[in-house]
Each structure stands twice: as C-alpha cells, then as structure tokens.
Amino acid sequence: MFKHVITISIIMLFTNINTAYASVRGESKVDILPSKILSEQRELIVHLPNNYQQNTALNYPVLYLLDGQRNFNHAAGTLDLLNQSHMAQEMIIVAIKNTHRTRDFTPTYNESYNEWGISGGADNFLDFIEQELIPYVNKSYRTNRFKILSGHSLGGLLAVYALQSRPQLFQAHFAFSPSLWWHDQVIFKDAENFLANTTELNNYLYINMGNEGGDMLSTFERYSKLLKTYTLKGFSYNAELIEQESHNTTALVGQSLAYQYLYSSLQCPKAVIAQGIPAIEQFFKMQSEKYGYQIKPSYRAINHAGYSALNNKDIAKAINIFETNVKNYPYKADAYDSLADGLKADKQLNKALTMRDLTIKKSINENVENNAFKTRRVNLLSKIKQKNVKNDGVVFRDKATSHVGQ
Q1: pLDDT at residue 309, as a whole number
Q2: Beta-strand (E) ranges in 242-359?
Q3: What is the number of other CB atoms lying within 10 angstroms of the CB of residue 112?
C-alpha cells in the first residue's frame, strides 16, 4: 500500500507540474452576461493578454470569438505564440459560448433545417453584441475601438453577414469555411449590392475554405470573385483555398493566418520606418483618423527605426530611440535587449551588460523565452573579459545579477 501511495504522489506531482507550465500566458476567466435582447444568460470566456496587468496605460483590441467553447483554447494559444514572436497584436479575447447556435448565426429562417434548431436570428444576435455585449466589455476591460468578429462554418456566415449589414460594428472579420450556401445562397442578394455601392470601407476580411467541395466551395469561389471585382478604399482582404485542410481544421489554421495578415495590414511600412520617427508618428496619426481612436506608434515600428539608425551607423540616434521604447514599455524585455545592442555598438560594454541583466530579469517577469537573451549576455561578458585582459591583464570578474534566475 505504501508503494501505491508513493506512486500516486509522484503522478500527482508531475500532473501539477504540467498544469503549472502548460497554460497560455495571460489571464482567463469565465463571465456571465444576462441579455434582455435574447431573454437568456450568455456565458463568456475572457482571455486578457500577457501584459495586461503590467501595462495599465494600454488599451487593447477585442476579438469576439463565436463557438466560444470549441474555439477558445486554440485561438488563445495561437495568439500567445504569435505575440511572443511579434507576429500578431496583443488583444483581449471574448469567446461567446453557444445556446442556440443555428438561431444566432443564420440571417434567415430556413424550414429545411429545423432539425438543427430554429434559424433566422442573426440580426437579433448582432443586436445583443452591439447593444449589450460590447458596452459591457468596454466597461469591464481596457479596450480600444478596434473589434474583430471571428467565426467558423455558420459562424463564418455570420461574420460575412455582419460585414455587409453592419460594416461599422467591427473593424475586421475572420470567416473560416463560411456556410455561404445557406438558404439558397441568400447572402449574395446583399453582397453584390453592398460591394458595388460602397466606396470606402476601413475594414479587413480574412476568408478561407478547405477541401469541402460542393456548395461550400462554389459559394466561396463566387464570393472571392466578388471581392476581386470591386476595389474599396481602405478595405483589404485575404481569400485562401487551403485544400489540404478539412472543414474541421480550417479554423485552426486560418486563425493563425488571419492574426498575422491583420497584424501586417496595420503595421507601419518599412519605407515609412526608414524615414524616421516623424514619419512613423504621421503614419499612426493617419491610422488614428482612419479608425476613429488614438493609435500610438507601435513598439515594433519604433524598435525597427532604432535598428535602422544603428545599421546606418547613427549610434547616438539609435540609443535615443531604444531609450524611448524602454521608457514607454518598461515591462518589455526586448526593449532592454535592443538598448543593450545600441550601447554595445557604442562600446559602452559595462552599461550594455547592465541592460542584458535587466533583459533577463524582465523576461522572467514578462514570462517570455529568454535563452537567446542569456546567450547574448554570455557573449557580451566574454567580450568584456577579453578587453580587460588586453588592456591591463586583469581578468574581469562577473559580480552582476547573481539574483537573476537561470
């Protein structure tokens, strides 16, 4: 019996270890919102970004995720991975769990699909999102005015329908394998009219399709053709046929691609970055006017400007730019790492080492991978030792950051 107790204890220990380290960074919580419009309570799963508590001055975009229980884990995990590689915008995720899926996601009543549940409640559901959910989220969390609607299958149909029927409600729409065939392709009655009579649309659409074939494929191709036909100022989209994916995996693959494409579409172009800080600030001023709220120059744009100056041998300018990012993003390990690069280029090696130490310390607080940071610290320390030996024969002894976790 004693052996069994030891075995169970060991299993529990490793279970707890896996639980502690396998979770997505940031904070997740379950919330409940009573809805007068839907005459029911709606359960939400909310995920706050990794740096939400550290940077209390920053407001975030919000991704409203349909089929919330099914899609939450992969959507949050994928976003976190991309955030760590600076390939997607940090955002709040609000996943909406289903009660009457067919009712909420379909724009018209179709008697033929009554076995799925009563249909045709899309407008009522969008009223709920617009009049109850969004105001509640804005009041409860630090949000900006950039909102994304993400859906798969019938949820993808709703995402496309929302774009056409309420183009100002969301600033981006993700539609994975959308069921555009619904009710004799009723979505197309308004689609062409909407695209033909809209001259400006500050919005982004990602739409994809897998190997479904049949009406799923033909309606996707029909909608993609419409998108190619009309050019709308301020509107961008990506339409992808991913034939190696099935209906059940297009959301998994598409969510990652949509995050990345959206992020790229909002970034400051390299040509603008090359012109320096004033040009970057002007770009984001125009972005603010476009989307109707203040958008500050991004960390990434400023950081790239710093490295542009560094590559042009304007080291003092580069250091100044990196110091600005450290001031604006004091919690971000990468900001200190970049400043260390500038100081190293300026041959201020001991100051650079201090920044390398701070980088590692900040990386632990930020909960980001820091192996590369540690390697750069080791390389810098070796260079300092070599310099000291060359100068006076005294071997440099490392007394710095003995407190830093390894």
Answers
A1: 95
A2: none
A3: 9
Instruction: List CB contacts of 373: < 8 A, sequence separation 6 or more.
Output: 333, 337, 356, 359, 360, 363
C-alpha separations of 287 from 62, 87, 149, 279 in Å: 17, 19, 20, 12
Element (H, E) at 42: strand 40-48
Name the CATH topology of 276-392.
1.25.40
Residue type for position 58: L
Polymer length in residues for the chain: 406
The 3 state secondary structure assigned to 174-226 is EEECCCCCHHHHCCHHHHHHHHHCCCEEEEEEEEEECCCCHHHHHHHHHHHHH
Closest CA to 357 of 293, 393, 294, 406: 406
In angstroms, the CA 189 to CA 273 distance is 43
Q: How confident is the model at residue 391 (pLDDT cuts 50, 70, 90)?
A: low
Beta bridge partners of 98: none
Q: What are phi and psi of 346, to 5 degrees?
A: -85, 5
DSSP per-residue letters across 228-272: HH---EEEEEEEEE-TTS-TTTHHHHHHHHHHHHHHHHHSPPHHH
Q: Are 52 and 60 in contact (CB under 8 A)?
A: yes
pLDDT of amino acid 126: 98
Q: pTM for this structure? A: 0.88
Give how far the C-alpha of residue 351 lies from the chain's centroid of Cα atoms, to the nearest Å. 34
Which tens digits make up the pLDDT trace of 345-361? 999 999 999 999 999 99
Whether the CB-CB separation of 64 and 239 falls below 8 Å is answered with no
Question: Is the predicted pLDDT of residue 122 greater than 80, yes or no?
Answer: yes
Mean pLDDT of the chain: 90
Provide the CATH topology of domain 23-266: Rossmann fold (3.40.50)
Domain range summary for the chain, segments of one domain joined by +? 23-266, 276-392
How would residue 22 be classed by pLDDT, with cut points 50, 70 and 90? low
